[in-house]
Structure formats: C-alpha cells, structure tokens
Amino acid sequence: MIFSKTNFSMMMNSRTRSLADGLLRGDRSSLSRSITLVESTLSSHCAEANALLEYVLGAKGGRTDSFRLGVAGPPGAGKSTFIESLGKKLCKDQGKRVAVIAVDPSSSRTGGSILGDKTRMTELAKEPLAYVRPSPTRGTLGGLAQHTNDVILLCEASGYEIIIVETVGLGQSEVMVDETVDMLLLLTPPAAGDELQAVKKGIMEVADMVVVNKADGDLVNAARHAATDYMHALQLMRRKHPSWRPRVKMCSSLHNQKIDEVWGVVDKFRTAMKDELVERRRLQNLRWMWSQFKEQLVAVAKEDPGVIRTAHQMETELLQGKSTPRIAAASLVQHFLENRK
Amino acid sequence: MIFSKTNFSMMMNSRTRSLADGLLRGDRSSLSRSITLVESTLSSHCAEANALLEYVLGAKGGRTDSFRLGVAGPPGAGKSTFIESLGKKLCKDQGKRVAVIAVDPSSSRTGGSILGDKTRMTELAKEPLAYVRPSPTRGTLGGLAQHTNDVILLCEASGYEIIIVETVGLGQSEVMVDETVDMLLLLTPPAAGDELQAVKKGIMEVADMVVVNKADGDLVNAARHAATDYMHALQLMRRKHPSWRPRVKMCSSLHNQKIDEVWGVVDKFRTAMKDELVERRRLQNLRWMWSQFKEQLVAVAKEDPGVIRTAHQMETELLQGKSTPRIAAASLVQHFLENRK
C-alpha cells in the first residue's frame, strides 16, 4: 500500500468535521475542544486529531502572517500580569486577535504545576478578541511542548494573529518553547540579576529580548540596575541571530507603563528578521517532525505483542544481572523489526 | 531468525576482547578506553560496545555489592573539593576503590561545559585506589545520562566499589542522575537557601541528603541558617522512600571537616534501604531499557532509505504549509513499517 497524506482527513468522522468547521469560523468553544483532542494521548484520539489538523491546514494553508511570541521567566516575574497587560493593549488599541498558551514544565515526581493557578488572566479572557488556554496539568515537558506546536497551528487557523506562549524559564522549558516560537522574551523581576546567577546563562542564550518587570514604586532603582546587568551580560554573549541584537527594556505591567515600548521592540524584531523567520520556521518544523516521528514510532512499537513478550523475558534477565538495559533494548529492537518482516 | 543474547559477545573482535580482559583485571587505561567505546555514537562502535558490555557482564555477573552515590549541586557549591575530600578518605581510611564519573548538562546552544575544568580532582586521581573520569563535552543530557548507566557497570566490573556520579543540579540533570544512582546527595553553598529559591523544589524532591558545604571561617553561621532552612523545607516534602527520612548535614571540604559524619549518614542510608535498593535498581534498569529502546529504534529508522526519501518529500510539504510536523511524522512512521513487511 502506498500511503498518501490525504488518508487522515478522509477518515475524519462527522463530529470532528463540525468541530473543524467551527474552529475555522473562529468559534472559541470549537477551538477549545479541538485543542483537547490534539493534546489527548489516547491512541483512538490520535487519528482523529491528525485528521482534524490536516483538514484545517488544507482549508487555511500554512499561515506565515501570524507572530509567535514566547514569554519565559522565573516564578514571581509577573508573567501573567505582563501578558494580560500586553494582550489587552493589542486587542483594544490595535484590534489584533491574541491567543495565549501556557507550557508548564510540571514537577517530575509530584506532577504538580509550577505555573500555578489555572484560571488566570481573567480580564484578558473576557476580551472578545482574545483566547486564553489554561495550562494542562499532566504529562512530560517534551510531550507538552510537542503539542504546543499543533495548538499554535489550531489557534492560527481559528484566526488568531498573535500567539503568546508562556513558560517558566528554569533551564529546559524555555529552550523547548524557543523551538516553537518566532521570538523569545525573557521577563525578569528587578532583582533577578543576582538571584538567577546559576540559571541565567542558559536562558540568556536563547532570549531575543529581556524585559525587567515591576519597574515601579520602590523597585525602580533595582530595575535599572538589573537592566544594566542584563545589558552587559548580553554584550558578552554570542548572537543568536546575525541580524538581531537582543534588547533590554523595563516596564511596569501592574501600572501598564512602557508596555508600548516593549511591543515596539517586538515590532522592530519582526521587521529585522522578516526573511530569517521563514527559514527559522522551516527548521523548527523539521526538528518537530523528527521528534514526533520518535514518539509515534515508539508508541507503535510498545504495543507490538512480540515486543511486550520479549520485554517480560528481558526483565527477568536484567533482574538476574545477566543483561544490561542497553543490551536488553538491542534485543527488543531486533525482535520488533524481525517480526514485521 | 531467533535472536539470542549471546550474539553480541560472539561478534567481538580480538582488540575489544583484550580491552575487556584488561578492564576485568582492573587496568585503568583499559577501563578508560572501554568507556570511550561505550560513549561513542558511531554505529560501528555500537556493536563492539554491546559485545564488550555483554562479555564483561558474563564474566562478573551483576554486582549488587557496589554503591552508587549521586552528588548534585549548583555551580560554586564546591562539588569537586567535596568529592576529592570524600574520595581520598574512602581510599585511605577504608581501603575502598572509588570511581568518579561526571554528567555535564552542556549548554544546548554553545555546547559549552558547565562543570568547567575537565582536569580536576588531581589529588584524588593520583590515589592508586581511585579512578576519575573527566566529563565529556559533547552530546545531549539524555544521551550522556544513558551512557552513565553503562559507564557505572564498567567501573563496577573493573573492581570499583563506590561509584560517585557528579552533576550540576539545575532542574533536569539531577533527576536523570537520580535514576542511575542508589542515593542522591544535594551539595549546596551556605547561602543557597535564598539563591536557589526557584530551582530548590525540584532538587529537594529527589534528594536523600542535603549537605551544606563551606561551613568554615566566616560562613559557619550562614551554613547553620541554610541547614535549618533545608531541614524545614524537607519536613514539608513528601517522602521519596518510605524507610528513609532525608537528613541535613554541614561540612567543610576545604578543611576535611565532618566528611566522616556525611559518610556516616550514607552508611545509615545503605543499611536502612538495603532491601529497597534491590527493587530500585530493578526499576531503574527497566526505565533505562525502554529509554535505550527508543534511542536505538529511532537510530535504525533514521538510516532506512525509505524514511530518508520520504523525509525529503515531507520537507517540501512542510515548507509549502501543506503538512504539519505531526502529520509528516505519521507518514514517515507508516513508510518505515510498511517497507519492512
């Protein structure tokens, strides 16, 4: 059998079809239910999700006029307030449709959420032009970030022009988010210069812009110091893009101050990086294709009866010290591939 | 063809055979070259590495009398000095053979090393009973951690009884290291209580013991405060093991003070956890088997001519916005599995 791309959407059931049509019309509840479908890890949902994605993509084509902004920062930086302030401005002053998605690197042991309260940004969520997607609470960071890619596509297909992806920047998640967005903004509290010494380097390397938040009241001086610190640090770093020099700005999300200036820099970035962003998205897509390939292939393999049988046998050998995980894995791979011949 | 486990060592060439024999005799240079072979990502080296591992394991059996101690901590905690001080004590006072392995979560963009200087612990390295393996500088965190598992086995087969695995604790690497060791020790500088606010939770969740280092001179009071902080924090956390309550200790690696007390707690852990550690290693082995399975299966698939051909085609469709990474990946998986029938 020769496999053709259109297989997926041909298999779509009528419920998914009407979901997709709702989404394309810009209906928020259809968008929400589509995202839930795409994020599902049930294998029966997977085929439907593929069908939905393909149908939606066929109807809209690949949009390149959207802009994807990542906002990373430590807990306490004021990310929610900043995004709410920025989002409201974009909706009200510029008439833009804005979608906000959260990627939460949940605690590996407890599964607890770091981003906290799931019903945030209540004011922005009330804007007719805005869509706020609460953060999922389960799953691995890798898995969530993979879905983020599809969630962005769904939001774009539903008419959203600015997609804001929020994450806690603690060393890994912001790198993953950077691989799904056009621009990464690092938001920090005024004192972050010292506090984040240890994690700073990794985050700074991927930041296109640093914004020192809470530059109001007693913290104005601290914010100025932090901004100078970041400016110096950025000067010492290797540039991420040849045509963009990362900028540092201060703002007060609480008082809606200088949010315009921050957006001004984002606009400058879009202009300066116009051509590079096309290539950047191409490379991001390729990277996600291979990453998804890995997940999907392993999911199929783990359901293979031969693999399951051999795994039991290997478990005994591992327990008796007769094998190592690496050798046991090699046996499993060989079994899987032999059985399919 | 029915695949049998002994395939690997039957295919071993004479060079690898003499390497393995040297390693089993406790020869340090053979151990070093064996580790290099096992860490290699060249597919031609992979089969040899499997053969070596299997041969060595067949000769020695699975050792359960070794102890694997992970040491994680932020940059500046004094990990090298601590491990050197502890290692020398174990060699000289207890006549133990000690191996030190470093897992370095290199910066994702620049590939730069966080653990820094690769020729450290010069004094410990001079001990006849010690073996210090400098940290590799390339590769992903996941890949390195996977190899760590095999490196530990090689060190054990070469006669080392205490294996110390060192890593920078920045939120991800210590969790991975925790999955390869029996006990995880978090080493912190006296002021870490505040500095590490943001990353503390993740690390604390997997720590079996917290050691506040640099408890000497002017820092004694700060160390005492930090220790109290950690003690309170640990009381609020869910226990990692039912039969072990995480302890907090202070020491001065520089002045070799209270290192004995730290080791006393490690000994207590070994006694209290005796039975649980067998089950723990079994679960660790299973987890690494599936993780290795994933890596190895994807490596085979990526070399498949059909997959390579289809990937080029998918690349074009992605570029034209006719597909998404997820759908393109599904096509690749289907192609790979169809072609093997």
Explain what the structure shows.
- The structure is a homodimer of 341-residue chains.
- Helix content of chain A is 56%, strand content 11%.
- Chain A is of the alpha/beta class and 341 residues long.
- The first copy, chain A, has a seven-stranded parallel sheet, with helices on both faces.
- The longest helix of chain A is centred in the C-terminal third of the chain and has 29 residues, at 274-302.
- Chain A is globular and about 65 Å long.
- Residues 1-6 and 107-119 of chain A have low confidence and may be disordered.
- The interface between A and B is large, with 85 and 86 residues.
Would you state the CATH class of the largest domain in chain A?
A: Alpha Beta
| Annotated CATH topology of the largest domain in chain A | Rossmann fold
User: Helical segment tally of chain A?
Assistant: 15
Task: Name the pair of protein chains with the most residues at their interface, and give those residue counts.
Answer: A-B, 85 and 86 residues
Our Rg estimate of chain A from Cα atoms comes to 22 Å
Residue-averaged pLDDT of chain A: 82
